[in-house]
Structure formats: structure tokens, C-alpha cells
Amino acid sequence: MAEFPEKRPRIVVIAGPTGAGKTAAVVALAQRCGGEVVSADAMAVYRKMDVGTAKPTPEERAAAPHHLVDVADPDEDYDAARFVREAGAVIRSLAAADTPVLIAGGTGLYIKALLHGLFTSTPSNPEVRERLRQEAAALGSPALHARLLLVDPAAAARLHPNDAFRIVRALEVFETTGRPMSVLQADHGFAENPYDALVFTLYREREDLYARIDRRVDAMFSMGLVEEVQGLLREGYSPALKSMGSLGYRHVCRHLAGEADFKETVEEMKRDTRRFAKRQLTWFRAVPGAAWTRAEEAESLFGPALAHLGREPAAYLPE
To answer: Which has the closest alpha carbon to 120: 154, 81, 152, 82?
Structure first.
């Protein structure tokens, strides 16, 4: 009897907080199965933003092809909806060619949206959104974050006080519907998984993870993070852009504007990156069915991953 192709492509997802070691793990797995990697990193999509995003190195990309890296300019609007569309196209193309598909990244919203669909809570309300944006500009996003903490503490816990874009959206949803976004998301439950996905979350003990983050930040400055931001500003990219408001870039913009000296900038970036990693872990705990794996034992996931993908490792290992 002829075999019919599976309706849902098989994929392996390696998630985890920044600094956990996802790239090293997924590259090693790709080499064992002949697979290709779809990046699920909201910052890796941007061209010209290399040092502060900790993108896969040229050597890592040569060892394992990566998709959705360097696909947008810093002033383009890249969001979860676009990621789901573009990642879906790559997955379907690779699956049609019988190439194993590996997803790796730390943007929890992107991974959750890819696996379970996007949450569309309510039509947007431009008037409410614009008013909230003006309030954020006048009062500062931390003031709106404090307001969100009162009406939707679960959503506020996932957001940095300076993440004006998402804070405004969460408040917009609450003011428009009268219900917290986190409650609406829980009621939504997300759609059926369009992929046959095996999901792993890499983690490290807090002390180890934070030490790695601190070293990574130091390395970014040594590799020219300040110079990279100066170049972006010279090209006309505004500090108000969503991309420029991300970790590292907003810190250096403040430093270049004279709002913080170099030592303060480095320490604030380390602190905020550690806090970001903590929020990432909160996201990943909500991903159903994920197998939590110690990063130091990442090779333990290779066997189940290869079995899920229907691959034998021997044929792909480098000599």
C-alpha cells in the first residue's frame, strides 16, 4: 500500500533564555541530521544589527543553514504575524524537500504563535492606542507599566517597564474590552498545532546563566556595540524605532545622548538582560509539552529529536 505524506510537517524546537546555549545545541543537532534552522529571534531578523543581537556567527551559519536572519531593515515593522507567515513558508519548503526542520530562538511569543496560532483578542482601537502612546511619551513607559500592573499583573510581569509598544497594546486591550489581555489569552487557548512539534527548553542554573549573560554583554562592548549603534544613528535610524528600543541598543543610545556614563551603561545592560532572561523563562513555562533540558546535557535531546525527525545521525556527522 502506498504511503501518504503526513499532513503536518515534523519539526524540532529548541527554546530557552538568552545565554543558555541554544545556537550551539541546534547547530550540533543540524550537523547530525542534515537539518536547517529557522531562527525564532525577534532581533536576529534585522540587518546591520549584528553585535547587539548575538546572531549566529558566519561559522555557525556555514555549519548549519539559518533562515529568518537578516531579513528586515531596522526601520521595518517586524512582528509575530510576519514571523508566522515567513517561518511557515520556510518550513513547508524544507519539508517538501525532505530536509529536517529545526526551530531555535528565545522569543517566546514567536514560538507560541508558530505552534498554536496568533491571539487576536479584539479589533484595534486607534483612538485609544494613540492616546496611550501620547501618555507614554509624556509620562514615560514605566508609568504606564505601573498602571498595567494594577489591571493585568500577569501581562505586566512579562513586560519590561520600557517596552512601551507592548504595554500600550495590553492597556489598549483592557480599555477596549474591560478584560485583561492575559485572561483573554488564557480563554483563547490557542489553535491546534499545525506542526508535529517536539519542543525542548534549554535551561541553566540561575548563577551560571547570569554569569554567562554578564560575559556576553562584556564581549558585545569589546566587539564594538557602541560603534555599531553610532553607525545606525549616522544612517538616520531613530532611537525611537522598535528595533532600537531593544536590549543593548536602547542602553547605548542613552549613553550616546549623555544620559549615562559607560560604566553605568554596561551594568544597566547586564541587569536588564538578566531580567529579560527571567521573563523569557516565564514565557516558556507556558508552552505546553516542552521537555526542559539542562544546557550542559543538551546532547541528551539529540536522540529523541533524531527519532522524531526520522533521521539516523551517522550519515551526517562530519569526518
So the answer is: 81
CATH assignment of the domain containing 160: 1.10.20.140
Residue 229 and residue 111 in one domain: yes
Which residue shows C-alpha cell 507599566?
145
Query: What pairing do the DSSP bridges indicate for beta strands 66-67 and 10-15?
Result: unpaired
CATH number of 282's domain: 3.40.50.300
pTM score of the predicted model: 0.77
Strand partners of residue 291? 200
Query: For the purposes of burial, counting CB atoms within 10 Å of the CB of 32, is it exposed (0-12), middle (13-18) or buried (19 or more)?
Result: buried
> What is the domain range of residue 152?
126-187
pLDDT at residue 3, as a whole number: 38
Q: Count other C-beta atoms under 10 Å from residue 96's C-beta.
A: 10
pLDDT tens digit string along 2-33?
A: 333 457 899 999 999 999 999 999 999 999 99
Alpha-carbon gap, residue 45 to 262, rounded angstroms: 27
Distance CA(208)–CA(10), nearest Å, equals 33
Q: How far apart are CA 302 and CA 284, in angstroms?
A: 20
Question: What cell numbers appear for 42 in the block?
Answer: 525577534
| Residue 38 within a domain | yes
* Cα(83)–Cα(68) distance, integer angstroms: 8
Cα(first)–Cα(last) distance of the chain, in Å?
38
Q: In Å, how far are 75, 251, 296, 311 from 11, measured between CA atoms?
A: 31, 36, 22, 12
- The arrangement of strands across the sheet holding 66-67 comes to 66-67, 36-39, 101-105, 10-15, 196-203, 291-294
Per DSSP (E only), the strands in the chain are 10-15, 36-39, 66-67, 101-105, 196-203, 291-294
Separation of alpha carbons 66 and 60, rounded Å: 9
